[in-house]
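Pasting as-is:
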Amino acid sequence: MVFGKKEIVGLDIGSSAIKLAELKEARNGYQLKNIGEALLPPEAIVNKVIINSGAVVEAISTLVKDLGVKTKDVAISISGHSIIIKKVSIPNMSEEELREAIPWELEQNIPHSIDNVNYDFQILPGESQEGNMDVLIVAAKKDITEDYIAVANEAGLNPVVVDVDVFALENMFEINYPLTDEVLALINIGASVTNINILKGGVSIFARDITAGGRQFTEWIQKEFNIGYDEAEKMKYSLRLTGISKELDRITRDFADLICGEIERTIDFFTTTSLKETVRKIVLGGGSSKVPYIKERLVERIGASVEIVNPFKNIIHDVRDFDPEYILDIAPKMGVVIGLALRRKGDK
């Protein structure tokens, strides 16, 4: 742990809600200083594209004010169609030579002009079979990135780190869970995107976003019962109770099959392309991870153990300031924002 770097606020601008987390470095780890969320109107962000920037700015501003946040520097993240993550195997070279080679690699691997994306890369540990080195390249469309930076700016905040959801999840996991050599998948089922990051030895070896999430479930409920968005959302929360209708139970099972089918196909693709790696464990989170049948379906389909994530596992939080039941309830959907709150200005 490196002390002395200025603390920043994690700001997760999701499709259905804005989440904010503030952590304070302590000698024995990190301490929770602030946590909260503000719901967004249903069409404010669609498929991770900001449609109603005014509503997003208002939600961020209100959340910052309500939580009494004084820090202006924030870490934000993006996901979905605007992000491309590729692992490439290339001849061994110096980092300086690699930096010159990356634009050519990008031209071969992305559908956009490199002039329209921001990109970065990371050399993965170890060597590939031919003595090459594996490099993870991440590219994000500039216009989408700029839109997310703009709403934070308009809310009076200063984005000093722009991350990617799957790597924010990895950052969160590293702090809270022990390092092992097993192959595991971090899966975050959000409102419109499901993030998948497969780790081996604590290092990402495959990452992908699936454009499917809890909003589809809400839309199915709206259509089935001919009701509005807010009422459909309330019905989703009623799933934790007993005695739901046969129709709602059927839709719930169908949604679980849809999401788990998409996850299974992604993991099958990883298994096929990696040749020798098999996912043995899934750490599951996101706002829709609590939907009935999802955990059980994943166990059946993937054949891996499934554990619900706890981003606060190693984060100190005073029970006098934070109700333990509240922390337990929100934990699965706070993975990305806790990962962002762990970042520091100047991080690569």
